[in-house]
Specification:
The protein is of the alpha/beta class and about 150 residues long. The protein has one domain: Cupredoxins -  blue copper proteins (Immunoglobulin-like, Sandwich), CATH 2.60.40. It contains three helices and nine strands; from the N terminus they run αββββαβαββββ. It is globular and about 40 Å long.
Amino acid sequence: MLKKLVGASVLLGLVSSVAVAGECDVAIEATASMAFSAKEITINKTCKEVNLTLKNAGTMPKAAMGHNLVITKKADMQSVLADGNAAGLGKNFVKENDDRVIANTAVLGGGESATIKFKTDKLNAKDTFAFFCSFPGHAAVMNGVVKVN
């Protein structure tokens, strides 16, 4: 019995650290402690489009502690963050029409959620992709890897 409980706990721990695109849907939470509920998003290579849902599980308003989710190539992350900072909250801390951005949600305040749909044609197995919160200062701890399998 103890083995089964330990095994189930380990399995649940692994599941919570990875957001999997089952049926091309991904759901992830941004927590009040400036963290995402997963450090990895896995997208099935057969998905042409993905529905991504972000929920801000915190309680603070978006101007004080908002969170979004942005997907780019890992190599573009820092420059996208710099341009997003200049764009400001009114633009969700993402430069308008930025070709480096594969997908992004709006900045959400506590208790809010949003679902976006994005095409996966820019995702491939040869590049490394990242997801992060572009609210100023958050990406240092709120980031993860996007994998295509």
